[in-house]
Amino acid sequence: MGSLPAPPDDTVTTQALRAQDAAHLIHPLHSTQAQQNTRIWVQGQGATLTDSDGTEYIDGLSGLWNVLVGHGRRELADAARDQAATLAYVSGFAGSSNRPAIELAERLATLTYPSINRFFFTSGGGEATDSSVKMSRAYWTLRGRPQKTKVISRIEGYHGATLAAMSATGLSAYWPLFEPRVPGFLHIPSPYPYRYEAPSGISQGIAAANELEQAILREGADTVGMFLAEPVQGAGGVIVPQDAYCRRIRDICDPYEVLLVADEVITGFGRTGTLFALDHWGVEPDIVQFAKAITSGYVPLGGIGINDRIAATLDNDDRVWMHAYTYSAHPVACAVALRNLRIILEEDLPGQCATKGDHLLANLRTALGDHPHVGDIRGKGLMCGVELVADRSTKASFPAADRVGPRLLQETARRGLFSRVKGDIYVLAPAAVITEHQLDRAVEILADSIRTVLP
Ligand SMILES: Cc1ncc(COP(=O)(O)O)c(C=O)c1O
């Protein structure tokens, strides 16, 4: 890591910046109440962030699960500058291409699942979701099955906030102001080890996967195009499936001819300990979605990879796939992604995520395993969740009015750890370069904060 310049000597006070922010910005998940205490970040270095008051925090979620290589990587700034100076932008529409995009697609063919060798680039994860829905519909139409349009995804799943992606998202808090959702999107329960109740005599993982088969049969297999799932659910509260789940899902998709789409927007490029998360269970998807860690968030980039069968169907038809973004295959984003992937491989960040994730999980269990309100501590690689409950024996949640999650968030931030909660689940997904000392400090802060909020 190169040394970075000191933060600008800003004479504008935090208070004034907050007022300007409130006057002129609409934030993602905009909320007047949340905006009142906006932290204004001015610098990042490794696994830490510094705000406009000069206070340093551990960046517990590495941005939004994306800054895998850590903040302040001079190599990525240089890659962006060099490409912008050479060729900042050119159309990626059919008939026009650029070297970084070609090289990146070729690289991804070697890094993603063996049958996935063709790539379409977007600016982020939500556009990746829309792109795989449209790819699925195009694929089935080109194969003479235009009625296979429905999308099945999962309650607790997050796939983005564009209208189609929001309709696939199974977190109902995202819906109320924006109804009606796109028709033809359905949700099944998640394989939530802590909460899923399987019928007796059948294992949780198999039963949760069988929910997909039941939904396909209910809807009619000839109307279902794809099943969309995060291998490890992130925004839903870090839900790690049972070992049997993913294999069984693949085995259900095949006979009913339903495309399996893996949303690896968080899990892609190493966070769970392998480059792509379905590798943990020896399963290949038909389409993989990625974003976030492909550039470690330094510039926006996402996309989808499709398997050879889908690619051949697209290639062998004269009809045009009329789907496009101005910033598809953006040269600067692709150049940064290439440099970022080099770092991920050279520094073995998937391996670091595996080792550090085990350390984090073990420490969380030691520090919090006996706390009367810690119901579950779970994770895979550097992706962890701590679920707080009112009653451990019944797993009953706290009433939302108690604001346990938000109070905990405030308490951890006061002590120097910045992250997010989903309800009363505190999630952690720091940069892969986080030091052992910083990891241990994060656990200490979280444990102290939980004991303060829930003595
Ligand atoms: C699994 C998953 N899919 C899709 C998205 C949406 O990505 P974006 O916010 O870049 O549109 C996210 C964002 O957190 C995500 O976690």
Would you mind describing this structure in some detail?
The protein is of the alpha/beta class and 455 residues long. The protein has two domains: 14-69 and 348-453, Aspartate Aminotransferase, domain 1, CATH 3.90.1150; 75-346, Type I PLP-dependent aspartate aminotransferase-like (Major domain) (Aspartate Aminotransferase, domain 2). Helices cover 37% and strands 15% of the residues. The protein has helices at 14-24, 32-35, 62-65, 74-87, 99-111, 125-142, 163-168, 204-219, 245-253, 308-315, 331-346, 349-368, 404-414, 436-453; strands spanning 41-45, 48-51, 56-59, 116-122, 150-154, 185-188, 224-229, 259-263, 287-290, 302-307, 374-379, 384-388, 417-418, 420-422, 425-428. The strands form three sheets. The chain has a seven-stranded mixed beta sheet with strand order 4-10-9-8-7-5-6, sandwiched between helices. A four-stranded mixed beta sheet has the order 1-2-3-13. Strands 11-12-15-14 form a four-stranded antiparallel beta sheet, covered by helices on one side. A hairpin with a 4-residue loop joins strand 11 and strand 12. Helix 5 packs parallel to helix 11 (331-346). It is globular, with a radius of gyration of 22 Å. It starts with 13 loop residues before the first helix and ends with a helix. The structure holds pyridoxal-5'-phosphate. Pyridoxal-5'-phosphate is lined by residues 64, 124-126, 129, 158-160, 230, 234-235, 263, 265-266, 291, 302. Pyridoxal-5'-phosphate (PLP) is lined by residues 64, 124-126, 129, 158-160, 230, 234-235, 263, 265-266, 291, 302.
